[in-house]
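Narrative of accomplishments. A recurring question from our advisory board has been how the design workflow behaves on a single, concrete structure rather than in aggregate. To address it, we present the structure tokens for one chain from the evaluation set, followed by the sequence designed for it. No filtering or post-editing was applied between the two.
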């Protein structure tokens, strides 16, 4: 199969690790982390990338995003079927399943999760505030927080920067633990010391979790069961389902044209009902 991946850069190392081992030919495109911070704008950018894929070139486009602030709601498959993991956010990708994610949330709800992508995306943006929570108004903060706040002002404007600072402060006040999701191939990056430092500064207990790439592997290997993945036919739109399925297909309006059926490549499952 010839597949196209469009994914958040927060999963760059994990996706590339699996692409190198996939039996399929896969083109990969990563979008900047943080699109879910502004869902309407992020959704528009993702939709433009989906619409730009040439008709008939790929067997499927794989979209590497969770529901993440409802950024998936309203997205429409272009001229090629779209395959999306059923996930509330990207942490599900690294824990291996939405069930494990739910179990972890039930056991320790006040946990902030760290991955290689979380750390590296901040470094890539030149953000030197290790926690990134800024609980903080610029006048009350130290040099690192002031630098982060200045970056937000430059990018979003004073009003939005102030809102982000206040919101991040509220979020961080509810966390009690920081958990590093680690893999064998990310251990040489020295993430443990960095995350331990962040947890110490935030007053959080530190823990480590073994990552599980099973969900991402099945996604990239085209093992698309309906429990874990939504297959979106060409032209169909996604919606949040507010249940265990997480995402589903929007109903087709009466009288609306329906995209012609696309012949599935050998070995691929049929599209999900909807």
């Amino acid at each position: 199969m010839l597949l196209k991946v469009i994914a958040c850069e927060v999963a760059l190392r994990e996706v590339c690790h699996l692409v190198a081992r996939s039996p399929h030919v896969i083109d990969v495109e990563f979008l900047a982390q943080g699109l879910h911070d502004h869902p309407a704008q992020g959704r528009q950018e993702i939709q433009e990338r989906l619409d730009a894929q040439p008709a008939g070139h790929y067997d499927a486009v794989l979209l590497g995003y969770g529901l993440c602030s409802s950024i998936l709601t309203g997205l429409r498959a272009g001229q090629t079927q779209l395959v999306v993991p059923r996930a509330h956010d990207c942490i599900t990708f690294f824990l291996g399943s939405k069930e494990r994610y739910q179990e972890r949330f039930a056991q320790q709800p006040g946990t902030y999760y760290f991955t290689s992508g979380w750390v590296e995306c901040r470094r890539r943006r030149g953000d030197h505030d290790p926690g990134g929570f800024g609980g903080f108004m610029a006048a009350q903060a130290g040099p690192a927080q002031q630098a982060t706040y200045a970056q937000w002002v430059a990018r979003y404007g004073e009003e939005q920067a102030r809102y982000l600072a206040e919101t991040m402060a509220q979020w961080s006040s509810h966390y009690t633990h920081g958990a590093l999701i680690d893999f064998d191939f990310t251990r040489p990056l020295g993430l443990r010391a960095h995350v331990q430092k962040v947890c110490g500064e935030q007053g959080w207990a530190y823990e480590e979790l073994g990552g599980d790439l099973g969900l991402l592997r099945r996604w990239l290997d085209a093992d698309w069961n309906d429990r874990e993945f939504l297959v979106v036919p060409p032209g169909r739109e996604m919606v949040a389902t507010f249940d265990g399925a997480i995402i589903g297909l929007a109903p087709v309006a009466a009288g609306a044209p329906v995209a012609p059926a696309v012949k599935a490549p050998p070995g691929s499952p049929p599209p999900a009902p909807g």
